[in-house]
Write a structure and sequence with these properties.
This protein has helices spanning 3-17, 66-79, 84-99, 107-110, 123-141, and strands at residues 30-36, 41-49, 55-63, 145-147. The chain is an alpha+beta fold. The protein has one domain: Sufe protein. Chain: A (Alpha-Beta Complex). The protein has a 4-stranded mixed sheet with strand order 3-2-1-4, with helices on one face. The structure holds zinc ion. Zinc ion binds at residues 36, 39, 41, 64-65, 67-68, 128.
């Protein structure tokens, strides 16, 4: 346990206790469900893209464990204001960080999402951390459900 582990735990706890961008919006242009039956995580994510393909608003609702909730909250914080191509690129970087610990990750791009950099040590929790990322990608692709199974 080092200083950054403590800080990362603090970030995850904070976002799991008081998730940002939680709730169902009045309007959205894209949405998808994310389900992780192994853990029981079930969410719906909503995105609003403008005509240039920039994510102007994003929110989520549902229930699940602290990891999935914190990951979704932190993810949406990062995605709002980004072009959907940037969002897809961030998905790849995050996915690589949580599944390939030996990789050369640009944590500057990830910001607070680096809080999940140690999650690969807990393979069953990786699905929790990545669940709503899959949902966002599916929403952008026009698919309405994402499952870790
Ligand atoms: Zn979970």
């Amino acid at each position: 346990m080092n200083v950054s582990d403590d800080l990362y735990q603090e970030i995850i706890l904070d976002h799991s206790r008081s998730p940002r961008h939680y709730g169902c919006p009045l309007n959205h242009t894209h949405c998808a469900a994310g389900r992780n039956p192994l853990c029981g995580d079930e969410y719906q994510v909503y995105l609003t893209l403008d005509e240039d393909g920039v994510i102007r608003d994003a929110s989520f609702e549902g229930a699940g464990c602290a990891i999935s909730k914190a990951s979704t909250s932190l993810m949406l914080e990062q995605l709002i204001g980004k072009h959907h191509e940037q969002a897809r690129a961030l998905f790849e970087t995050f996915h690589d960080m949580v599944t390939n610990p030996g990789g050369d990750h640009d944590t500057k791009v990830l910001g607070k999402l680096a809080a999940f950099s140690g999650i690969w040590k807990f393979p069953s929790r990786v699905k929790c951390a990545i669940l709503c990322w899959h949902a966002v990608r599916n929403a952008l692709d026009g698919k309405t459900t994402a499952s870790t199974e």
